[in-house]
Every structure is written in C-alpha cells, then in structure tokens.
Write a structure and sequence with these properties.
mainly alpha; 11 helices; 237 residues; single chain
Length: 237
C-alpha cells in the first residue's frame, strides 16, 4: 500500500471531519478539515473563516459548547498537526475562554482548558485546586512535570543536569503529590513507573555528582548495575 508524507496526520483530519459534520454548527469546520487533508490550503482557510464567522454570532452558551468540543477533540488527538490553527485560537477560542473565566472564575473546567491550550501550569494548578476531581488538568500537569524531569536528565550521560537542582526537586515533589490523588488505577500505574524511573535516575546522579569516584556517570551506573534509558519523553497513551 502506498504511504505518503504525514499520512497519519491527514487521516486524523478526515476522521475528525466525519465526526464534526454530524454535529450541529460544525459543518464548516468539517469542510476545513477535509480540504486541509487534501492539501487544499486556501480552500481550507476559507472554510475555517466561514466557521469562525458563524460561531461568533452565536449566543455565548452555544459558542462555549463549540469551543469545548474543539479543545476536547484536540486533546484526544495530539498527533493531528495544527488542528486548531492560529486564527481559530485567537478569534474564537481565546476570547470565549476569557469571557468564560470572567463570568465563572470558580469553574475548574475553564482553567483546565486555558492551561492545556497555553501549556500554563498556573492555570492547571488553579483547576486542580478548585476541583480535586478535575482529572484532565491533573493528568496533563503531571505529565508535563514528568517530562520536565526527563528534559532535565537528558544530558546525564555528559555529566550535566540541565536544570537547577532546586527546580528538579520541586517538580518531583509536586508530581508525587498529584500522583497520590489519581483515581484511575491504570493511569496511576503508568505515571508511577515514569516518575519512579526519573526519581531513581536523579537520586543516582546526585549521589554520583557528590562522589564521582573518577568515573563517568554511565560508568558509575554500570558498576552498580543501574540500567537507564536517557532522554525519554512520555506520552502516557
């Protein structure tokens, strides 16, 4: 079977378009995805502009529903490139979220979407603080913290901790606290393995840095039969 560049991403757009065209007020967005999947960029942009114009004249409750659907579909399809283009984010999604937060500042969901959209840890922390059962925000923040640890450790073979030790310890502590409150056993097991790997790696590195014994860190690990994979970034599904 013939494969083409970015086939997975284009197939993802087609699948999303098929779902969108069955839902109220999303037909123009569906057309935009279909045209983008065919490589018809200008036509896709025109359909997107139609969608934005139609959405902006809707009442706020309906517009908010559309925005939630768009953010949810992006969250569940992270490999689909540019599903929410810049004009859609700036003209529709961000103004809707801003009004939502202004009207309902105690709603954890709006802080969740702001945090995910902008990769804003402060907003994600607010969502979790407002609602202990806000699992999407908790999971996203936990994943982000663990990946920050993975980034901090990816130069360990060169004997270098990329971030400050204090920052690394803070990430470990926050991730541990978030992990303790996860409810889904399967997700908790995945996050536990990843966080444990990073914690053990960091603890060993700090021990080596205090007493290197004229060994590189890799040699130090080999002597103690430690087996690590460097530079892992976690997707958790």
């Amino acid at each position: 079977m013939t494969q083409y560049w970015n086939q997975e991403k284009f197939e993802g757009l087609d699948a999303i378009a098929r779902q969108a065209e069955t839902l109220p007020r999303l037909q123009a967005f569906a057309r935009s995805c279909q045209l983008k999947a065919k490589g018809l960029r200008k036509q896709s942009q025109a359909a997107l502009e139609d969608f934005i114009a139609e959405a902006l004249i809707l009442d706020f409750a309906t517009r908010r529903q559309l925005v939630e659907w768009l953010l949810e579909i992006q969250h569940r399809n992270p490999t689909v490139h540019n599903l929410i283009p810049h004009p859609l984010a700036k003209q529709l999604i961000e103004p809707t979220l801003a009004q939502w937060r202004q009207d309902q500042p105690q709603d954890a969901v709006v802080h969740r979407w702001l945090g995910i959209l902008h990769k804003d840890r402060a907003a994600l922390r607010t969502a979790v603080a407002l609602d202990a059962d806000e699992m999407p925000a908790r999971n996203y923040l936990l994943r982000d913290l663990i990946n920050s640890l993975a980034f901090a450790t990816h130069h360990f073979p060169d004997g270098e901790l990329v971030c400050e030790t204090t920052f690394v310890r803070e990430c470990l502590a926050e991730a541990t606290e978030l992990l303790a409150q996860l409810k889904d056993d399967e997700e908790k097991a995945l996050f536990t393995r990843a966080l444990t790997q990073q914690r053990e790696l960091i603890e060993d590195f700090l021990a080596w840095r205090d007493r290197p014994e004229d060994l590189t860190f890799e040699q130090w690990c080999e002597c103690r039969q430690r087996q690590y994979v460097w530079g892992v970034m976690y997707s958790f599904g």
